[in-house]
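Input.
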Amino acid sequence: MPKFYDINEIGNKRVHGRTVEGATPLPLFWNHAGVEVNCTGSELWIHIESDCGFHEPWVAYEINGALMGRQMLLPGDHDICLYRSMVPGVVKNVKFYRETQAMGEDELCHVLVRGFSTDGTFEPVKEPKLKLEFIGDSITSGEGTYGALDDTEWLAMYMSSSRNYATILEKEMDVETRLISQGGWGVYIAWDNNPKHNIPSIYEPVCGISEGEINKRLGAQNKYDFSSWVPDAIIVNLGTNDNSAFTQPPMEVPGYGVCKMRIDEATGEKNPEDVQKVHDAIVNFFKMLRRNNPTSLILWVYGMLGCELEPVIKGAMEEYIKETGDNNVEYLRMSDTTPETVGSHSHPGYKAHFVAAKELGEYLSRKFNVPFKELRGNL
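Output.
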């Protein structure tokens, strides 16, 4: 008979994603946050609790690196069989994680891991060769990686961390990734001209976007201990939504008034004052990242949905380097999404993420002298 183990009883495990160390049950705040174990049992169950108001969280699990399931979680307690009737005594690597981004508009939304049940033992999980933190928007949330090409609704089921560029790369380079992303948000302003929705404003807490009494009690708003997990590289993929804001109508934002990134009618060019706001936000975000991550490479990647703001990003990077003398920052242009690689909701599809993972993997392999295997994803 399987025996239940509280999550804190299991010493041999790897917790993925920002969370509250030692918490039981264990909250999975961000996309791709989860638990990895090496189990010898003939069967393995995970026991979780979830809730939501209107954004149902999705979860996924892999066995020996292969995706075996993904599903929506309705409110309540869930006992999910991850596998059974497998050969006892043989180690199976199992990774269970949250598929979808943190849902800031839904204060009830949460996923908690209570523990596992098995008839076997838990063996040590190997250390990764590199630790990579990814910061981004809907691209890094994997929006568009599932669903038909004609599906244009904004739904959690079309998001994923199982098929995005960060986690494709994770498998092929034997690295550990953490994701911090929010669809529609920018480094300065959101796609719809809401200046409240910028990633730097939520970066320093454990999960700054998860609000409400429940998430506060779970520790989402606690100050994150950056020394607890030091990334070798921080990959920032922002700017797409800041650029979109220039083409969107004005927005009335409480506390801000009417907000609009402007296009000069006479020239058809972006208003220099508004461009400067994005520039300054990038410089300041570099400073925030470096303050909290003194040794990490900061790599800004851009271009999967156009590269209009590339001069602004590179100009801000040059100013930051000149001002601080910090040369551990770099820029990488990514290939644009094409009609052949686009996914649902007019976002990069799985094929586009596959291309991005290959480009980024080759770059990081050279940078850190870590082997990069030929991608084997099923296209």
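The CA atoms of residues 210 and 216 lie 8 Å apart.
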